[in-house]
Amino acid sequence: MLALAGVLIALLSLAVAVAGYRRTRLAPSARLYHINNFGPGDAKEFLIATTVTNGTLGAVQVVTCEFEVKGLRGRHMVGGQSRKGPELPYKVEGHQSATWTVPVTDVAELLKVYGKQTAKIRAVLALGSGRDVKGGWFRFDLDKWAAGGEKAKPAGARPQSPAKSKA
Question: In this prediction, what percent of the chain has a pLDDT beyond 90?
Fold first, then answer.
């Protein structure tokens, strides 16, 4: 009888520990950003990247990674064939991260089709558990990011260096 009570207490404490663990673990998060892929040997291109970070102790499986473009009529996703990164589905171990990218030209072409100059983009990752992880919105300006740098300033606004005098 005492052994049975000990087993029941052990099972109850295990159930309480598992419930506490599941309540306190962090969820995976996604971050979206713009990068210049200009390293030695790399193709000269500008990329939109997302990094998913698994803050849980266990592994999380990423099934799909797409980039949602807001600001156009309807819902548009980019990142099919041109997406680069680990092959999907991909298992992200606890306290690890993984990065996927798409060329800026994919978003630029979509904006040109709709005659838009700006849009907002976010990463949408579907997990094996059926949950989605969505990153924050990133403002995409066709003039700034598709060209790869800051917007060109008008000629009158550029600072001019003073002319050197010859003595």
Answer: 26
